[in-house]
User: Which sequence fits this backbone?
């Protein structure tokens, strides 16, 4: 009877999770859907607490209380700009939980029964290896996103060789512990090496490649909880884990496609370091045209269609509110404003959309690359704010360029282009952007937020 | 390991793939936050480890796992809700300010 109730609560939870994720296809339905998913979670927890193996509720109660105390500020007070590192950190938590449960399960069986079945050991190994790699990787990712660790790629000679050795070692221990689960040293060494491997995997990856990495680690952590489900024979863990894994998998594929790079290239290519040497055309002999806020304001004031292209620079300058205000002024004068969001703009999938939504930009003005690229031909102004590589025409025209083949926003097809930028430094990929030297392009140098505030003030006088 | 669990895994992965590939890029960040919250389901395993009183080691490991999983659930669902509240269409209701 009790077991039936537990299984029913898991069934309800699974259905509500799936419906919750499905609701995310519609922005207007998503909120209610996810609230239902939260209710599903309560069912799952309530069901689990009835489990007859639980005899002592004191540690559970303590853990739940501390968890709420940590979780509440992480949910309510973390600013939207810190979202990438917050997501990375919560991936650490979920992977750590899976890893610790796996170790506890192993320890209990090895001390009480003396050994484990090969099948269970295989599941535990998957759980713990993926979990430990994710823990190591996400801590570094969070550190890089928060800029505690340099967001530049950290590389050394023979790096891929060392990584391959460590991975082979892990694979060896993985098989060895399945064959002979009583070898505790091998089991614990595997955990330690997996954490180190996770760290070494993410260290050489640069800031702009983070969307792929975060998505990939998301799918690892999902698979780790899936494996937990196999190890302890729990269906809800398998279902939720595979939903999580599928989500991470899909996102990492989308992100890789948007950069025209393969997984392996992102993970082992150490993009920023090698490209400086082979960067295509250089800027020598080309000149840029600088523009003041007055002239830029006039251009924007009389434009029929302005397409705004936000990039990571907008997030750094915290300029999203100023962008919205400028957009409203253009609209008040009869112009139309669209926002063109490149899939890898920012540091995580959908980063720009969240920032602009927070600044009260209605979501029907936010457009995906494919939706908006055809509109650039009739745009009077393309306003590039802190974006670089995603508007670099070299991706279309220069086969020697490292970003050749990457789908870009067609800013260069607009009648004129205004670029808000701090200085002439190259983008993340370390390559020159021809767009900045185009005769239709004007550069408005300075901090994006200050420039936008200046534009807003000038617009009032036009 | 039973074959039944493999069934569940494969079918759930299919459902996940089909549902999630329809999520628009607009909501990719909320999607990540939402799957983070749902990944807090590892609390299920953590609760059992923390409460089964097998031995001190597994109780303590379970306890830490309960903390991690709970903070993901609470933080994850709250932040997903906070984000989704911000997405509004241009038609209809005006801005909240």
Assistant:
């Amino acid at each position: 009877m009790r077991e039936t109730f537990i299984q029913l609560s898991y069934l309800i939870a699974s259905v509500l999770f799936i419906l919750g994720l499905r609701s995310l296809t519609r922005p207007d339905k998503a909120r209610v859907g996810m609230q239902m998913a939260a209710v599903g979670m309560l069912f799952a927890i309530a069901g689990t607490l009835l489990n007859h193996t639980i005899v002592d509720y004191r540690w559970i109660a303590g853990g739940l209380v501390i968890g709420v105390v940590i979780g509440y500020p992480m949910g309510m007070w973390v600013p939207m700009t810190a979202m990438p590192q917050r997501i990375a950190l919560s991936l650490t938590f979920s992977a750590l939980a899976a890893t610790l449960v796996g170790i506890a399960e192993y320890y209990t069986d090895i001390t009480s029964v003396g050994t484990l079945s090969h099948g269970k050991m295989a599941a535990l190994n998957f759980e713990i290896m993926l979990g430990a790699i994710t823990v190591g990787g996400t801590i570094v990712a969070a550190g890089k996103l928060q800029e505690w660790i340099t967001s530049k790629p950290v590389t050394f000679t023979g790096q891929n060789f060392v990584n391959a050795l460590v991975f082979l070692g892990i694979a060896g221990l993985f098989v060895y512990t399945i064959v002979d689960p009583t070898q505790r040293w091998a089991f614990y060494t595997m955990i330690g090496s997996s954490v180190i491997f996770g760290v070494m995997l993410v260290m050489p990856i640069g800031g702009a490649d983070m969307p792929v990495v975060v998505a990939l680690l998301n799918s690892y952590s999902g698979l780790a909880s899936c494996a937990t489900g196999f190890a302890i024979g729990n269906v809800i863990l398998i279902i939720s884990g595979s939903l999580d894994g599928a989500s991470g998998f899909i996102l990492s594929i989308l992100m890789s496609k948007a950069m025209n790079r393969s997984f392996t290239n992102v993970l082992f290519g150490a993009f920023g370091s090698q490209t400086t040497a082979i960067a295509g055309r250089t800027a020598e002999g080309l000149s840029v045209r600088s523009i003041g806020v007055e002239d830029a304001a006039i251009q924007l004031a009389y434009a029929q269609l302005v397409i705004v292209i936000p990039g990571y620079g907008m997030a750094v300058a915290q300029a999203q509110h100023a962008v919205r205000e400028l957009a409203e002024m253009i609209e008040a004068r009869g112009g139309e404003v669209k926002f063109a969001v490149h899939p890898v703009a920012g540091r995580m999938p959908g980063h720009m959309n969240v920032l602009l939504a927070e600044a009260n930009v209605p979501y029907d003005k936010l457009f995906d690359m494919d939706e908006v690229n055809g509109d650039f031909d009739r745009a009077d102004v393309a306003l590039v704010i802190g974006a670089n590589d995603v508007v670099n025409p070299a991706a279309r025209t220069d086969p020697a360029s490292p970003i050749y083949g990457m789908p870009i926003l067609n800013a260069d097809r607009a009648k004129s282009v205004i670029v808000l930028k701090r200085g002439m430094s190259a983008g993340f990929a370390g390559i020159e952007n021809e767009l900045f030297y185009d005769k239709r392009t004007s550069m408005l140098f300075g901090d994006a937020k200050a420039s936008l505030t200046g534009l807003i003030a000038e617009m009032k006088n036009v | 390991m039973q074959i039944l669990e493999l069934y569940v895994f494969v079918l759930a992965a299919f459902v996940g793939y089909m549902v999630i590939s329809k999520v628009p890029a607009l909501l990719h960040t909320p999607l990540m936050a939402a799957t983070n919250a749902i990944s807090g389901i590892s609390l299920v395993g953590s609760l059992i480890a923390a409460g089964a009183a097998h031995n001190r080691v597994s109780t303590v490991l379970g306890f830490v796992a309960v903390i991690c999983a709970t903070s993901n659930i609470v933080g994850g669902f709250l932040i997903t809700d906070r984000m989704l509240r911000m997405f509004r269409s241009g038609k209809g209701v005006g801005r909240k300010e």
Notes: Confidence is low (pLDDT under 50) at residues 271-280 of chain A.
